[in-house]
């Protein structure tokens, strides 16, 4: 189908292109009668503004990019909801990409967003991301960048995250206060900062409560299949330690749910025999039997705040206002259920 242009509308009505453009935008210096004529003909001809041309004139695309590690995590779905809410307020479109925990794919996706001319980029880094040149490229191009959840401390940009170390410390301290002494930790990859911080919070809680840290109780889960990782490491934990372990603190809920599934299958009672504490407060955590205690990260709020900061930095850039980078810590809370 042929695309109708402003010029064609102007020629049919005997008006200038400028007058037609102003009429469609409701400029006050165009008469009501002219506006009605222009808008009626535009509707009749199915006129749609050329967003690309508008973007070139305005030097903005009204588009922001967001890269997340995975779609399946409930936490990231809530983050996206928060981003969409704020973007829609400002009439911004979202390009949503998934790195699938791949550094190489994340790099390609950054290049794609740069080439698409997005006004700003939000990223939660993959577990495999170590080299940060692709992030530095964004900054060198003058594109506002906000990192959220899984961040890189050395990159000079705004960041929105939780205090992973504090949250983990509180969860493990709760388990200790309930009388548990041999607490295993199902941790994530060695690289992501949030995995590191949750491990450090776990370790500090033990030490502060005069419980000796035992590295044999730490299981690295890095196969990108958290449910089966949880199931398999629970089996390994029981084989390795038998009854000489009484609780597990998992780096995320899916690992803990996988472990619960193993214990249910083997008729190992939770929490009587072994207690569990997860992280992220997935919907599944409230419906599994027994229900899983977890840490609420407030993903929607994180997405909302990340988008607010990014959109403000885009505005500052357009107006020539100096951008002041921010570091926002989103509060967490313990959600206590039947697993402990």
CATH topology of the largest domain: Rossmann fold
Mean pLDDT: 92
Query: What is the CATH first-level class name of the largest domain?
Result: Alpha Beta
Q: How much β-strand is present in the residues?
A: 5-15%
Low-confidence stretches: none
Radius of gyration: 26 Å
**What's the total count of β strands?**
12
Strands across the major sheet, in which order?
2-1-3-4-5-11
Largest sheet: 6 strands, parallel
Order of helices and strands: HHHHEHEHEHEEHEHEHEHEHEHEE
What is the count of distinct domains?
Answer: 3
Please tell me what the overall shape is: elongated
Structural class, by secondary structure, is alpha/beta
Number of helices: 13
CATH architecture of the largest domain: 3-Layer(aba) Sandwich
**End-to-end CA span:** 63 Å
- By CATH, the superfamily of the largest domain comes out as Response regulator
What's this model, at a glance?
The chain has 340 residues and is of the alpha/beta class.
Structure description:
The protein has three domains: 44 residues, no CATH class; 137 residues, 3-Layer(aba) Sandwich (Rossmann fold), CATH 3.40.50.2300; 133 residues, 3-Layer(aba) Sandwich (Rossmann fold). It has 13 helices and twelve strands. It is elongated and about 90 Å long. Helix 5 links the parallel strand 1 and strand 2. The termini are far apart. With 340 residues, the protein is α/β, with parallel strands linked by helices. The protein has a six-stranded parallel β-sheet with strand order 2-1-3-4-5-11, with helices on both faces. It has a four-stranded parallel β-sheet with strand order 7-6-8-9, with helices on both faces. The model has no long low-confidence stretch (mean pLDDT 92).
């Amino acid at each position: 189908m042929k695309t109708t242009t402003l010029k064609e509308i102007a020629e049919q009505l005997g008006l200038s292109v400028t007058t037609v453009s102003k009429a469609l935008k409701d400029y006050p210096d165009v008469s009501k009668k002219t506006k009605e004529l222009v808008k009626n003909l535009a509707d009749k001809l199915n006129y749609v503004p050329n967003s690309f041309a508008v973007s070139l004139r305005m030097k903005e695309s009204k588009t922001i990019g967001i890269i997340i590690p995975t779609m399946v995590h409930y936490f990231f779905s809530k983050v996206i909801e928060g981003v969409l809410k704020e973007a829609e307020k400002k009439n911004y479109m979202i390009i949503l990409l998934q790195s699938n925990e791949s550094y190489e794919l994340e790099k390609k996706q950054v290049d794609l967003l740069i080439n698409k001319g997005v006004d700003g980029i939000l990223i939660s880094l993959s577990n495999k991301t170590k080299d940060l040149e692709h992030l530095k490229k964004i900054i060198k191009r003058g594109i506002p960048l906000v990192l959220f959840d899984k961040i890189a401390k050395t990159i000079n940009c705004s960041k929105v995250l939780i205090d992973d170390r504090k949250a983990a410390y509180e969860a493990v301290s709760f388990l200790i206060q309930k009388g548990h002494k041999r607490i295993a930790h199902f941790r994530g990859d060695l690289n992501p900062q949030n995995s590191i911080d949750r491990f450090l919070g776990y370790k500090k809680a033990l030490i502060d409560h005069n419980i000796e840290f035992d590295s044999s109780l730490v299981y690295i889960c890095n196969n990108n299949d958290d449910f089966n990782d949880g199931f398999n490491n629970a089996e390994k934990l029981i084989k390795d330690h038998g009854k000489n372990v009484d609780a597990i603190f998992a780096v995320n809920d899916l690992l803990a749910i996988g472990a619960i599934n193993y214990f249910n299958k083997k008729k190992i009672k939770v929490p009587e025999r072994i207690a569990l504490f997860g992280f992220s407060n997935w919907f599944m955590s409230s419906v599994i039997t027994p229900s899983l205690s977890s840490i609420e990260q407030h993903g929607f709020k994180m997405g909302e705040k990340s988008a607010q900061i990014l959109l403000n930095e885009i505005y500052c850039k357009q107006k020539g206002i100096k951008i002041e980078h921010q570091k926002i810590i989103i509060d967490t809370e313990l959600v206590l259920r039947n697993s402990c």
